[in-house]
Sequence to fold (1205 residues):
Amino acid sequence: MKHHIHVTIATILAALMCASAWAEIELSCDSLVIRLDEENGRITSARIPQLNADLALKGGLRVTEGVEAREITLGRASVSGGQSPLLRFAPEGEELAVEARITPRNAWFAWEVKLRNAADRQRLLALSLPLEVPGDGPIAAYDGFLPTEALTEAFDGPMYRTPIPLCAAWSEAGGAATGINAREHLSFVATSGEPLPDGGARVATRTHLVLDPGQELKVELFLCGMTGEWGRGEALQWWYASAPELFVPTDGIDPRILDASAQYAAWQRNPLQAEDYQVREVARRTRAGWDWCINPFKRAGDVALREEWYDYTPANPERLAEEDQVPWEEYRARRQAQFAAGERLGVAMLLYTPAQIWLEEQLAREQFADAIVDDPSQQNRYPNGYVKPQDSVVRVFPYNTSWGEQAKKDLADAAEELGLYGFSFDTAVGGGKFRGAAIAGLPERGWDENGPFMREGVAIRRVMEYVHTLRHEDGTTLGIAANIRSSADYNSCAGSDAALFEGQPWKYERGTEFALRDAIGTKPACWWESYELDSFVAYRNMNRDEIAAAYQGMADFTAIESLRMGFWPSTAYSRGFQSMTERYLPRIDACIEAGWQPVTAARSDDFTWLTRYGSGLQTRIAIGNETPGPARGMLTVAREWVWPGQPEALVFTGFDGSALTTQVAEEDLTVTDVRVPTRSAEVIVACAALPLPEGSKVTAAWAGDRVRRTLTLDCSLPRALAPLATLSVPEGMRVASARIDGTEVACRERDGLARVGAEGARRQFRIEVEFASAIIQPSQDELLEVEFLFEDEPAGYIVLPAQPTQAEEIAAERIVHYFQWFLHVERDLEEPPAFPVVRGEVPEDDSLMIVINRERAQAPTITLPATRHLSISAPDAAGLEAAVGELLAVLDEKYVAPATFVWRRATNQAGLIGDWLPDPVANE
Amino acid sequence: MRQCSILIVILLAAAAGFAQPAVRVTINTDPVPAEVNLLRNPGFEEGVDETGAPIGWQINTAAPDDFTFEPIGDARSGESCWRVNTDSPAMSGYIQQTLPVQDDSEYRAWTWLRLRGGRYMMLLRGLVQPPDAAPYRFDERTEIISSKNHWLAPLYLNPEHLQGPPEDQWILMPMTITAPAGLGSVQVWIGSYFTASEMHFDDTYFGPARCTISLKVESDSPIREVRVRDLTLGPPIFRDPAVGAVTSYECAVPEMLLADAYQVSVVTAAGEWTELVHANQ
Fold:
């Protein structure tokens, strides 16, 4: 009997254990481990791996129907197992099939949800993956727009400001984020959150979907864990990683689109009388790569400048500008010349369109009536002056309508005609709603209290995607800079390659621009407008020094904020300030190129703020000092976030090469003796990576100049190891020599990295790697000793081949313009003389000869065969462009001539026009 | 001692040469603004309603949590004036009233404003529905900016140089419109436009634009010229260049812009005198 009872009990226990083991599924990704109830597919608990701690997270799919949000009870889930379990729901009586395949991907989960409408009526459904994140009280939350330190009140969008489809909550004990993969083209996104009675918060990202009878839709939801240490940045980091191509510029576009904007220096010429050399040099010195070629058409929205549309009677003919009152042929020829001129001066001329959503009213009503938008929440018509002064315009929908097809054709035709490298999209916020017949059946539809609609942002994104299929004749993919502000629809942000923020750095409450930064990921953005100093200070009562000081203060803030946010100052902010063109813009350039990172992964009590750019050996950390005195201190860098999975320790120097010491611990690197001048920002850069034990210290410093420089690493270890280091090779340079403790060693160079090592374990060692310019062979001193100018005249000739290519002509022109600019700015010559350019034989003369491609070298090369003979050669146009660029960058060390102030009320008052202000920091 | 006396006399004579002539100006308008003001509770003396708005007004902002709307003391007249404050430039915030208007009629609106930072704006808005044309929006505005509370100071900008009217001074901000046929009603909005702001309103007005000004000038020295300016216009709205060297001058001028105060300049034999003269006092 006893034996029989034991067997029975054991059997029962075994059955229970099997049942409990079978009733839960555990899934892991790098940021989160979740356990799902197999009966209903709901999350019952979680664990944050990095914290090695459980998190009482709860959540699960939620589907509601209609405006009243009727809950659809999903009921039991049928689960097919494996690494990516599939949950199937057949909600009773709902005529709706719901599936979710949960796939762990690196550091997040993809919930691929499929909904199928089996009913014979259209369904308006809302889908979300709400989470309940525990906490001891109110916890931090992120609504897809801005973070809140402690959520005490409920929120439910959409609000006047549009969130990205991501919502998160966290505390020191960890947290989680729920969202939607940015690859989805969704018309309705809302985030919601509320504090829980026992502490913590419930958060959700919701989308509204329209399913016609029999229609099936798929949406990929997003879920990740958070340690809570780095706030919303953690959620953003993994959300970006779930669709990485949307948060970096499109592959293959012209890199100039990622630079600062010339802000009409090239397009309309600001100032109007600017000479070619002024445009070229101002653009170069302010790192301006593209221009916003606004209104390049007579009729609003006619980007292709169609002859059949050109002659018409506008709504306000008295407002038609004189320059638009010319025949079509003349207008077209003039436009072509303007675009060609800007391009020749080195600026990518991005043809302007109001995101293809505004069109001259008569044209729209006559030919594209099916696309006209009537959204009471938006302005749908302007009687005059919105795009072109003479035109009334209406809002049109550029997707799946007659205008949608025309819009694409117009962009393609304009691109081909003008040889464009891209477009500038204005009015791309994308908030409007379109309910026309063209949206029938489209999967991108959303709905609101008035029924189905399609979001303008989705249509703009589709147009942007089309642009990315276009190619310049040289194979470059066309790109887009878009005016998308802080409250743009996430679709517009996903489709852009660079953003224009239509405002100054002080326009909004400080920090709200992070909403734009979050939405565009690592892509660059630029400030617009200008200082408008006269709206801040009573300049009429101020003298020159006071006005200059006010301008310098605002320039310093602009530069500081640019480094904090990863934004470019456009040309209007940079011109007039040596601090901008020579100190800040190179740092901003390096940071933007490395790419803004949402997880700062660095801390300090000694500075105002830190922002991280890049990862691994591309890491740059911008450091702000917004105090009235110099700041000095240290910062700690979290190794696992900055270079995940890599055992080597990164070592840092100042951006200017100044020495910094990095101390190695298991989880952190501590960088000491960091200095930031008064009211300023600095950047430190990762220069090398070494396998170092905890307790090691490395002092790294650069010495030298642009043509030849040496990185020295002085290493001190707690135990002996053989020296080994990987270094980042500066762009445009190559390894010239390497020594460890004074002994020459081999150096392997590949893919921008150099690796050096030596045998023999030691506790102290010095690594010295010398880099030399890959293009310039003489030393920098030798190059700067060349006498390019004699008094105020060019000291020789530029010599081209007898039949030069256009690239060779432009190379000569760049050098001509360079010295004309210097003579104009620094020698006050209104009509500065130009270097004479000779084609063919080298003149028999003892003047300086700058000889271009006398023999085309196999690689870009600059040599100095004699003190009065400079040779530039390259095998192709790109090489020649790089060689001349490098030459001018070196010459900037001697021919100091920053971009100058233009007319403004305050600069006029102060007598600053044509001048520039010396860098207060460099001159301390 | 004698040299000191001579010096004092010279200094006094020099001072007399630069001294303003003694001039007394009074302006009365017919009608008086208070008689024809269409606004309810224009001076904010009637308290607040359950929404926190001044009686007769509505609060208009999409971000109420970012704003403080409240009555305060230290008014220009009476016990109360109205305060609008926000630390956020993310949204605008106004108080508003909707008032009927007659077709093709001229109206004046003003606020007395004490601006301690930010961007004040008055908007007069409505929807025009002409009988034989498409409707369009009516939108006229006036504004003034003060940077005196801007957070760029003191680190980036010297506070002494910041622009804006004196922080403790009441200034008159008038505007004039002609109501087009089909407007029917106009919304009067006053408030803060997308800047961090601290501003106070008192003695507001919306009503007929024209009046007869009765002007009286008395001077210790003969009057040569009298000019009257409205605060919105550059050129004078009234000018008498040939007064006739009298020491007492009176006139009545019809069809003048109605206001609470005018800029009056009087040229006398002793020099020019200019002052803001409050009407009907």
